[in-house]
Specification:
The chain is mainly beta. The chain has one domain (about 5-115). The protein has strands at about 5-10, 20-30, 35-45, 55, 60, 65, 70-75, 80-85, 95-100, 105, 115. The strands form two sheets. Strands 1, 2, 3, 5, 6, 7 and 8 form a seven-stranded antiparallel β-sheet that branches. A four-stranded antiparallel β-sheet has the order 4-9-10-11, with no helix packed on it. Strand 10 and strand 11 (about 115) form a beta hairpin. It is globular and about 40 Å long.
Length: about 120
């Protein structure tokens, strides 16, 4: 059903100190147990990085985000929280930008949003 589509996947890790993990890329294969993606990954956490904004370079920590290298990932369905299907023409193999407000997005034509900062109660 998802093979050949471009997706954004958010999944959880099975340990308490884990933070959000997001993958963006092409679905290569799916089974009843797992989803296989050719993708880039983004790992989020307040303990990662320092600055508020910047352009993310591969394997660099910026503003709480670590970008993983392009590669094949196998993600179990039991760990997937949500899948967003993206337009077929989405160029996901590009740099990521984090703006002053904390929005993390792909530097592509659509400026595909990877994540938004959590809303804070004032």
């Amino acid at each position: 059903m998802l093979e050949g589509k471009v997706v954004k996947v958010r999944w959880v890790k099975p340990y308490p100190t884990a933070h959000n993990h997001i993958a963006v890329g092409d679905v290569l294969h799916e089974t009843p147990q797992y989803l296989v993606l050719l993708c880039r990954t983004y790992h989020f956490g307040s303990h990662i990085g320092g600055g508020r904004n910047g352009i993310l370079r591969q394997e660099e920590y910026v503003s709480g985000v670590l970008e993983g290298e392009k590669g094949v990932r196998i993600i179990p369905w039991s760990r997937i929280e949500v899948i967003n299907e993206l337009p077929a023409k989405t160029n996901w193999n590009v740099k990521v930008h984090i703006d002053q407000s904390g929005i993390c997005y792909l530097a592509n034509e659509q400026k595909t949003i990877i994540s938004r900062p959590p809303e804070r109660n004032s």
